[in-house]
């Protein structure tokens, strides 16, 4: 779907998420959302907060699993995705604290592999992800699945690509301060979601969107694996769709 502006696209995605939350609530069921960080989904979160405040949209039946977190990263760190999610969504809606999951970047390295297995087990125990929201990095990463990430990869510790670290440099006041690694759900974890919505805005994303949508399905561009997903949408503004 191509919208003229990002704001319009964000409203449409927020409507879709709200409809799913309400449908599940009316059935007395949980709604399991996979959530993303970065600048792209902030408009969706702002709209969901508005719907909570103005329309009484409740998040009490919502369970969330975030895609990724820098490693190492303290939860209260300026660039932490825990902090990001609190500021943009969790602190402004009625989600139960125990239902909002973000990978823990503050673990001892020796605990990470087991922690990642447990993260996967928690997703499975929640019934799997109903809707996975995604952005896309300039390397084609979804979550932090950098080039080389396989189709069956699961939640794990990865090494960040140079391009990704450069893109994050301003957030960290210099590339040298960007962590070398991150914990991310795998491509396989993402593909298990029943529905996937990838959002991309702005001319800077046009090249990678073209590769993801029209290019070969390959580990070089993790987002290209979405071509094989039975229910994946790309929600773009006109600038990001420009090369299609
Ligand atoms: C980071 C995040 C990704 C995000 C990407 C793009 O690498 N880990 O989940 O999709 O940035 O960020 P932005 O939406 O700011 O362009």
Automatic annotation (TrEMBL):
Segments forming domain Glucosamine/galactosamine-6-phosphate isomerase: 6-215
Highest taxon of source: Bacteria
The name this protein goes by in its record: Glucosamine-6-phosphate deaminase
Organism: Pirellulimonas nuda
Gene that specifies this protein: nagB_2
Span of the entire protein shown here: 28 to 271 of 654
């Amino acid at each position: 779907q191509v919208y003229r502006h990002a704001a319009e696209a964000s409203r449409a995605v927020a409507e879709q998420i709200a409809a799913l939350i309400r449908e599940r609530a009316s059935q007395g069921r949980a709604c399991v959302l996979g959530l993303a960080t970065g600048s792209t989904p902030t408009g969706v979160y702002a709209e969901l907060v508005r719907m909570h405040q103005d329309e009484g949209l409740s998040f009490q039946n919502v369970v969330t699993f975030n895609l990724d977190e820098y490693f190492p990263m303290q939860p209260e760190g300026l660039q932490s995705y825990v902090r990001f999610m609190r500021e943009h969504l969790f602190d402004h809606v009625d989600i139960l604290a125990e239902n909002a999951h973000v990978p823990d970047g503050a673990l001892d390295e020796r605990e990470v592999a087991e922690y990642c297995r447990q993260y996967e087990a928690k997703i499975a125990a929640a019934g799997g992800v109903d809707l996975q929201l995604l952005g896309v990095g300039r390397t084609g990463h979804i979550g932090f699945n950098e080039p080389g990430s396989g189709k069956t990869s699961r939640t794990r510790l990865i090494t960040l690509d140079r391009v990704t670290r450069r893109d994050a440099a301003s957030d960290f006041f210099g590339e040298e301060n960007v962590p070398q690694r991150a914990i991310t759900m795998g491509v396989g974890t993402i593909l298990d979601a029943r529905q996937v919505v990838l959002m991309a805005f702005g001319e800077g994303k046009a090249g990678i969107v073209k590769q993801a949508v029209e290019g070969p399905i390959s580990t070089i561009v993790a987002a290209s694996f979405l071509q094989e997903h039975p229910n994946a949408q790309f929600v773009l503004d006109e600038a990001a769709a420009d090369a299609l």
